[in-house]
Design brief:
By secondary structure, this protein is α/β, with parallel strands linked by helices. The strands form three sheets. Strands 7-8-11-12-13-14-15-16 form an eight-stranded parallel β-barrel, surrounded by six helices. It has 16 helices and 16 strands. The chain binds zinc ion.
């Protein structure tokens, strides 16, 4: 612990005193500028050192050359990413030298994610690869791919050809689409991501946000109204299993997202099949159908050697977190229907994320007021804002205030595996719009998840100075990065 504290102090003081020379994002955990420079010529010397933590690296730049020490491929990759940021360029823009430094670095969190919703707006392979590139520059390593929702289902699943037909839309009266990914498209993305040490985590949303599937195959929905998954229908449960079979076949990720958010339960109470199901399974009432489904799908994935992830509703209450993630939490904590610890919880409200971690669940934290990048970035003159700005305003500074441990008991901190930004796209129309919303806020997120500087010692002014340089870099790479304020 003492060692860690020392490392964090070094990192934060490094961040404060060296900004003029070292403009890295994310700032490494330990940096020591030794003076002088190393001319860029020979390839770096690379050494394997088993004691270096996963994804970590040591970088030694001296006038005689560059040495990288690492214990895994990801560490070597990140060392090279850091080296690239250190390059000094000549007037023609060609890299000529590096400042001499000693760096010891490893990430604070193993889940450093970006979620992209392609069910509300479809961006396509080229755009996704672009996002993966941008992520890799800043050591973000999980691409959470939201592939299904009520508006569309964009993953082609063999045996269910009608699913992807739901992505049909209209543009000024003309039919467009359907837009979706085939198995080959997915493989191409997976390969591209793997080269950048990014894990692709697919999300198939059950039992709510499920209207596209219901439109394609009406028998999957409850009888008597409502476009939610009819859990009382054994064919619908078999459908979920078959989809997950295919997803596991296609995606190597250990974690598979099964959704679980915002499912209205009133339809289950009205549906004869679901009412019979409650009776058959001995559940208290229709409210307990979602916990049943979570447990069922989590066990199903576990049997395949995978782990289910769900939005916070899988553990808070009986699935009805309010805006603060507070309502019915107490009830949920007592419920015998809570899933076992074989699930990973994605908390999108601060209180729910902390509560889940304190209950002993592993948690990915993405509280909306720090991590929902569809929210307005600039209060004035934001060309890509479609909300009433003051109602959903998430400026860069607020992202930099994100503390993944807020509200988490000291003994439960290890349960926070990381965090991510969420790019919901009901109001994000194309790649230009998406990039504007992602950057520069993604820089702040990357630093929190990699470096996690002590919240009380974060210096937003110092960070902004570095971010300004990286904004220029992003623009040079044709990334549509918003101004800092
Ligand atoms: Zn039903």
């Amino acid at each position: 612990m003492k060692k860690l504290l020392f490392a964090m102090m070094v990192a934060s003081s490094a961040a404060m005193s060296l900004s003029a020379k070292i403009d890295l994002i994310p700032m490494p955990r330990e940096v020591n500028v030794t003076g002088g420079e190393c001319r860029k010529s020979d390839a770096p010397k690379v050494e394997l050192v088993a004691t270096i933590p996963p994804e970590g690296y040591e970088l030694s730049v001296t006038p005689d050359g560059v040495t990288i020490r690492h214990s895994d491929d990801a560490g070597l990759f990140y060392a090279k990413m850091t080296l690239e940021q250190l390059e000094t360029k000549n007037a023609k823009g060609n890299p000529t030298s590096y400042p001499c430094v000693e760096i010891k670095d490893a990430p604070a969190f193993r889940w450093r994610g970006v979620m992209l919703d392609e069910a509300r707006h479809f961006f396509g392979k080229t755009a996704v690869k672009r996002i993966l590139d941008e992520m890799s520059w800043y050591k973000l390593n999980v691409f959470h791919w939201h592939l299904t929702d009520s508006q569309a289902w964009v993953l082609d699943v063999p045996g269910y050809p009608k699913l992807v037909r739901q992505g049909l839309g209209k543009n000024f009266g003309e039919k467009v689409g359907p837009f979706y990914y085939t198995a080959n498209d997915v493989k191409e993305i997976l390969e591209y991501a793997a080269k950048r040490h990014i894990t692709v985590v697919p999300e198939i949303d059950f039992p709510g946000h499920f209207a596209a599937a219901c439109r394609a195959y009406p028998d999957l929905a409850c009888k008597g109204g409502g476009k939610v998954m009819c859990v009382g229908n054994t064919n619908a449960v078999a459908f979920a299993e078959k989809v997950l079979d295919y997803v596991c076949e296609l995606f190597p990720s250990h974690d598979i997202h099964i959704g679980g958010d915002e499912c209205p339960r009133k339809f289950w109470a009205k549906c004869p099949r679901c009412r019979a199901f409650v009776e058959r399974e001995g559940l208290k009432d229709a409210e307990d159908i979602q916990p049943w489904l979570t447990r069922h799908l989590a066990a199903y994935l576990e049997a395949k050697g995978r782990r289910a992830i769900g939005w916070e509703e899988i553990v808070v209450g009986r699935g009805k977190a309010d805006a603060n993630g507070e309502s019915e939490n107490k009830d949920g904590a007592k419920s015998s229907l809570l899933p076992g610890k074989n699930v990973l919880v994605m908390g999108y409200h601060k209180a729910a994320a902390a509560r889940s971690a304190n209950m002993g669940y592993q948690v990915v934290s993405c509280p909306n007021w720090h991590c929902y990048f569809d929210y307005t970035q600039l209060l004035e003159d934001d060309p890509f804002n479609y909300f009433i700005p003051k109602k959903r305003w998430l400026p860069l500074e607020e992202v930099y205030r994100f503390d993944p441990f807020e509200g988490v008991a000291a003994e439960s901190r290890a349960n926070i595996v990381g965090g991510q930004c969420c790019n919901w796209t009901e109001k994000t129309l194309n790649l230009y719009d998406l990039e504007w919303k992602m950057w520069p806020r993604g820089l702040a997120l990357a630093e929190i998840l990699w470096t996690n500087p002590e919240p009380s010692k974060r210096d937003f002014g110092e960070f902004s100075a570095r971010a300004a340089k990286h904004r220029r870099r992003l623009i040079r790479e044709h990334v549509n990065c918003a101004p800092l304020k």
